[in-house]
């Protein structure tokens, strides 16, 4: 019984440490993104379209972990800034794609190196080996959490 209490306490501590670490890293990166004149969600959409090409609006939310109701608002803002355009699918008129414009492409090409450098600086407390360990452990944690949730449903 005592071991179970210790394991429970350790799990809670891990959750708190993980949450605080995520918040600290996220705050630094988001501050950098805001300096580019966009918010983190807008940046994520632009980055997705730049690296993966045109995307159906319905799928963007799940790819960048955003509620589907918020996508229209974000797409409207990016479109008003001239960074993306909407275009109808030729095969299925019910589907609308978001496409990055030349201006959007130039924007990402200009700011992405600075963004990547900021992330590198933010996680620089870890060595290359520690980053590899953290990646492996966090993947394991994520898969385990997903599996535990699926079994509990």
Task: Sum this structure up briefly.
With 153 residues, the chain is mainly α. It has one domain (2-122): Arc Repressor Mutant, subunit A (Orthogonal Bundle). Helices cover 73% and strands 8% of the residues.
Structure overview:
- It is a single chain.
- The chain is mostly helical and 153 residues long.
- It has helices spanning 2-34, 40-52, 57-63, 68-80, 102-122, 128-152, and strands at 55-56, 84-88, 96-100.
- It has a three-stranded antiparallel sheet with strand order 1-3-2.
- β2 (84-88) and β3 form a beta hairpin.
- The radius of gyration is 19 Å and the shape is globular.
- 11% of the residues are buried.
- Residues 11-143 form the HTH marR-type domain.
- InterPro entries: HTH_MarR-typ (IPR000835), MarR/SlyA-like (IPR039422), Tscrpt_reg_MarR-type_CS (IPR023187), WH-like_DNA-bd_sf (IPR036388), WH_DNA-bd_sf (IPR036390).
- It comes from Geobacillus jurassicus.
- Pfam families: MarR.
Give the helix tally: 6
Quick one: how many beta strands?
A: 3
For the biggest β-sheet, the strand order reads 1-3-2
The CATH topology comes to Arc Repressor Mutant, subunit A
Biggest sheet architecture: 3 strands, antiparallel
Shape: globular
User: Low-confidence parts, pLDDT < 50 over ≥5 residues?
Assistant: none
CATH architecture: Orthogonal Bundle
Q: How many domains comprise the coordinates?
A: 1
Radius of gyration: 19 Å
The first-to-last residue Cα distance is 27 Å
Strand content: 5-15%
Find the CATH superfamily: Winged helix-like DNA-binding domain superfamily/Winged helix DNA-binding domain
What's the level 1 CATH class?
Mainly Alpha
Order of helices and strands: HHEHHEEHH
Keywords: DNA-binding, Transcription, Transcription regulation
Domain HTH marR-type: 11-143
InterPro entries: HTH_MarR-typ, MarR/SlyA-like, Tscrpt_reg_MarR-type_CS, WH-like_DNA-bd_sf, WH_DNA-bd_sf
Pfam family, one: MarR
């Amino acid at each position: 019984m005592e071991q179970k209490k210790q394991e429970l306490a350790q799990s809670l501590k891990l959750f708190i440490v993980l949450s605080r670490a995520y918040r600290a890293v996220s705050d630094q990166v988001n501050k950098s993104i805001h300096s580019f004149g966009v918010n983190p969600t807008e940046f994520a959409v632009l980055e997705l379209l730049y690296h993966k090409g045109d995307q159906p609006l319905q799928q963007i939310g799940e790819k960048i972990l955003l509620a589907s109701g918020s996508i229209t608002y974000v797409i409207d803002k990016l479109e008003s800034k001239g960074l993306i355009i909407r275009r109808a699918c030729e095969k299925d008129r019910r589907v609308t794609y978001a496409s990055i414009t030349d201006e959007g492409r130039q924007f990402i090409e200009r700011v992405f190196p600075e963004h990547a450098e900021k992330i590198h600086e933010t996680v620089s407390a870890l060595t290359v080996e520690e980053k590899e360990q953290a990646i492996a452990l966090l993947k394991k944690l994520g898969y385990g959490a997903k599996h535990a949730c699926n079994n509990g449903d």
